[in-house]
Write a structure and sequence with these properties.
By secondary structure, the chain is mainly α. It has a domain at 11-107. The protein has helices spanning 3-7, 14-19, 23-29, 36-52, 57-70, 77-87, 94-107, 112-118, 124-137, 143-148, 155-168, 173-179, 185-198, 204-209, 216-230. The protein is elongated and about 65 Å long. The termini are far apart.
Amino acid sequence: MGLKKVLGLEKPDIKKMERNKDVKGLMKALSFENDESIRRDAAFALGKISDSSTADPIINELNYEKNDVINGSDSDIGESTIEQLINSLNNENIDVRKNAAIALIKIGEPAVDMLINALENENWRVRWHSAEILGEIKDDRAVKPLINVLNDENNGVISNSIIALCEIGEPAVEILINALKDGEWRLRWHSAEILGEIKDDRAVKPLTDVLNDENNDVRMAATKALERIRGD
């Protein structure tokens, strides 16, 4: 065995791992410190495998690793894999970002907490993709953090948060209703818009109250939302 392999410096063969659907090897490659391109290619390959497979290999591998932790193993690669995939959401290569997103969607619920934290990432791309992925996963825990992001400085992040909350739907209604009373007008405005898309009758009275809001955009959004709910 060569010295580089012993020291963990030998470059992983990403193409071979992809051909063999070696999910565990690709996950380890996400943490390869000596070459950013290896981490990028590993994220890309994981996304391709995840997108094309019906067997959910990433889920299977994460479950295997979780059992290792429960059984006393030092392995904790699941969390580090999710972190690396989230970091890949800021990669300059659009295909890498796309495939990292696919892998995170496939991982689903175990990735939610870290994706919620990523909504506060300093990089807009990470926030943008994280909001999008949370909308695909549709986990209730993401509702309040996504509402908070409706005040983001980036319009793309706001748009993806709106779409995500519409995708989550009914579980978001009560928190969106509470947001109609928020001191920040942008949160009231977008919350009214989203409630109009979800079309839940519980929002009728709160939206009616908002027709007297001091902000014209909020009033207009509430008017349109009520029209959508009532089918006008």
